[in-house]
Amino acid sequence: MEDRIASYEPLVAETTPKFPPPRSSSFGDPHQQWNADYGIATGDRRFAFSRQQSFRQSDLPSPFPMQRSQTLRPHQLGRSDSSISMPPLEYGKGFGLKSSEKVTAAGVMLSVVRAIRSGNRPMKRLALMISLNVAYSTAELLIGIFTGRVGLVSDAFHLTFGCGLLTFSLFAMAASRGKPDEIYTYGYKRLEVLSAFTNALFLLFMSFSLAVEALHAFIQDESEHKHYLIVSAVTNLLVNLLGVWFFRSYARINIVYRKAEDMNYHSVCLHVLADSIRSAGLILASWFLTLGVENAEVLCLGLVSVAIFMVALPLFKAAGSILLQMAPANVPSSAFSKCCRQITSLEDVSGVSQARFWELIPGYTIGSLSIQVRKGADDRQILQYVHGLYHDLGIQDLAVQTEHL
Amino acid sequence: MHRENSPASQIIEVNIDVPACAAEVGVRKICGGATCDFSDSKTSSKDAKERAASMRKLLIAVVLCIIFMSIEVVGGIQANSLAILTDAAHLLSDVAAFAISLFSLWASGWEATPRQSYGFFRIEILGALVSIQLIWVLAGILVYEAISRIIYDSGEVQGLLMFAVASFGLFFNIVMAVLLGHDHDHGHGHSEHDHNHGESNSDHSHHDDDHEHDHTHGIEHKDGHEPLLKHSHDISTANSAKKKKRNINVHSAYLHVLGDSIQSIGVMIGGAIIWYKPEWKIIDLICTLIFSVVVLVTTIKMLRSILEVLMESTPREIDATRLEKGLCEMDGVVAVHELHIWAITVGKVLLACHVTVTPEADADLVLDKVVGYIRREYNISHITIQIERQ
Known about the structure:
A: 405 residues; 3 strands; disordered N terminus; B: mainly alpha; three-stranded mixed β-sheet; 5 strands; 64% helix; 10% strand; elongated
C-alpha cells in the first residue's frame, strides 16, 4: 500500500504547484488509515475495466493523449475507488456531518486548531483574518454597548455576520479535504462551491440592506453625523484591505474557475472587497457631509449598494449554476451534439439518448448517457470509444448504458 | 401520406413517426430526448397537481400577508410608532420568504433544456436555502434590535405597545402556520380547524372559504397519495412511521412563519416585562436571545437535508450497502463499482454504477434484472448501469 501512496503524492504535487499537497488525513481524524485504492496499479479485479487501464490498452483511432490520464484531477477525489466496497472498518469514519460520535467543545476546538495548523497558506491567512475580525468586532460591540452608540453596535453585528460566513468558508476549506465515503460518494469538495454560494448570497443580502438604508436615509432626511463611526470605518477598511492583499490573485470580478478552491478563495476575496467598499463609502459619505454636499449619505450608500451587487452577481450565478446541476459552462452545447453525432455515426450504434452532464466542482464533470446498439456488437470497443470522446471534452466520470436492440 | 391507385389493389402509404417510447417492447428503458425521464407524463401530472396545491397555499399566504402588512403600515404611520413600523418590516420579510418559495415552486416545474438536462428541480432546494439564510439574517436583526432597545433606554420603549403589536403578530403568524402546515391528513382534524376559524375575527372570514377549498382538494389528494406512501412504507427499512412528504418550499415558508411566531412570543414576554417593571430591561434581551436560538434550532433539520442534497450524498432512506450486496448476489454479476446514488431534490433519486459481469453472461438480461431490482426494491426512477465484461 505504501508504494501506492508514494505514487500518489507526486501526482498531486504537480497539479497543485502553489500549495503543499493536502495531507492524507481527513479533517479531525488524522489517525484514520487512508487505504482508498487509487486504482491504476492495483491488481484488484474490481478495477479490471477502469477507464485508465482500458485506455492504455486501446488502439482506437481517437487520439487520446496518454499523459492526461496520469495528471487527472480526479485522483484527488479517488474517483476509481469503489467507496462502497471499503472494508467495514471504514464504516462511519467519514467526515462527521452524520457522525454519531459525541462532539465536545474542547474536541471541536482541538480539531479546529489542528486543521488550521495543517492547512495550506490561504487557510492560515483566512484564519488570521477571521481572528482579527472577531477581535475587532467584539471590541466594537463592547464599546458600543457601554458608551451607548447604536451605530457601533450595528457595525459590530454586521462584522459578526461576515465573520460567521468567513468561518464557514474556512470550515469548507478544511472539510473538503475529506475522502469520499459511503454517504458522500463524490467526496466533500462540493462544500467549497456551497460556501462560495453562501458568501455571494450574503453579499447580495448586504447590498439589498444597504439600499434599504439609503432609502431610509433619504426618507428621514436627517443625517446624524456619525463622526464616531469614522474611526471604526477606517480600521475596518484597513483590516479588509489586508484581507484583499492576502487573496490578491482573486481580486477580479470574472474569474475562470479551474478548481473547487478557486471559487471559495474568490468568494472570500469578494467578501472582504465588499466590506472595504462599504467602509470606503462610509468614509466618503462623512467627508462629503463635512464638505456640505446634501444627501451625501444617500448617494454613497446607493453607490456602494450597486457596486456590491455587481461584484457579487457573477460569482452567485456561477456557483448557483453548479449547484443547479447545469451542464458545464466551459463546454459549448455544439461540442455535445458533435459527440452525439460521432457516436451515432458508428455503424453499430443506432441512437443516443438521455445524455446528461453536470459539474460536481469547477473542472470536474460527470455524465451519464445510454446508447442503443445493434445486437451482437462488441460492447467494449464502443464503450472505449465513447469514453474517449467525452474524455476529450473534459468529462472524467461517465456511465454509459448500452441497450441491445 | 399518399395513395397509389392501382387496378389490383389500393396501397396506402402512411408515414408517421413512431416515438421511440412506443417502439420499445418490454421494460421501457429508452426514452427519446433528454427530458423524457424527468417529465414523464405519469409523474409530471402528479407533480403538477402537488405543485399547484402548494402554490395555491402560498399565494393565499402572500395575499393575507400583504393585506395585514398594509394595515400595520397605515396604523403605524397614524400612531407614529416605530414599533409597529418595525413589525410591518418583519411582515415584509415574511412576504419575501413566501415570494421566494412561490418562485421556487413555480420554477421547478419548468421543462428541462439541453443545458439544464435534469430539469429545474434543484431550484426548490436552492430557494429553500435562500429562505433559511433569510431566517438566520432576520434572527440576527432581531437580536440587534433588542440590544439597541437596551441602549436607547429612555422612556421611548413602551412595553404595552410592544406587547400589543407582538400579540397581534403572533395571532397572525399562528393563522399562517396553520394554513401552511396543514396537510392532507385526518378528516376530523379539518372540522376542528373549521371551528377555530369560525370564531376568529371578521376580517378573516374570507379565509374560511379558502380553507374549505383546500379541504376538498386535500381529500381528493389523499386517495392519490395513499398507494405512493404505502409503497415507500413497505420498502424503507428505517422508517416505520408514515412520513408526510411535505413540499420543501412550503415547509421552509412554514418554518419562517413558525420562527416569527416564536419570536413574537419572545417580544411579547419582553414587552410585558418592560411594561410591568421597566428596570428589568435586560430580561428582554435575554428572552430575545433565547428565542432566536430556538428559531435557529428549528431550521437545523431542514438545513441538514438541504445540505445532503446539495452535496450529492446518498439519500438517507436508501441503504447503499444493502443495494450493492443485493446486486452482487444476482447471477452473472461479478462486482459493482463506482456506485453513486444521489438526489436531484428530496424524493427524486438517481443512480449510476458500473457492473462487471462474467464473460458469458447475457448483458441485456443482466441489465434488465438489475434495473428491475433497483426499481422494485428502492423505487429509484432514473438508473444508468454500465455493464462491463470481465
